[in-house]
Specification:
This protein has 176 residues and is α/β, with parallel strands linked by helices. The protein is built from eight helices and six strands, in the order βαβαβαβαβαβααα.
Amino acid sequence: IVCLANLRPQKDHVLLVEAFKSIQEMHKDWTLHLVGKDFEDDYSRTLKLFIHDHGLSEKVFVYGSREDVSHILSQCDIGVLSSKSEGLPIALLEYGLHGLAVLATNVGECKRVVSDESKGYLVPSGNEVIFVKKLTNLIENEVDRTKKAAHLQQHINEHFAQEAIIQQLITFYNEL
């Protein structure tokens, strides 16, 4: 499982790590990889202390900023975003382009990317119970996870990839 998000409070990594802790007993072979700028502030220290204090140091990895994000994504099955607020998250687009199933909070423009459950799951921000339920579903149902990933990848390519945006701009200017 991967999360591409800078270590900032509005990204709510604490909810994500707590949810991951809840599923660990039943799914010991899964790991969580947090990729994004580490500001090494109180939030970062609190998150790392939580990981350590709950015995998750061998299961949750904090990488900071990385140049090899594409390689990391190629090693993952699920992309998650547990934010309290967002704009249009590039992370969701990257997950889709790399063929990952997604679980995200229903904030900002996430609904534009994950427009229905055929493409992934959107859950209310801050709701750990539903987050755990949907994450467990993605982990336990490989066929469903693969279908969601394929639908999201197709949606991203049709509506958000460079070629799609260029075509949208051409259509827009032709209509003027």
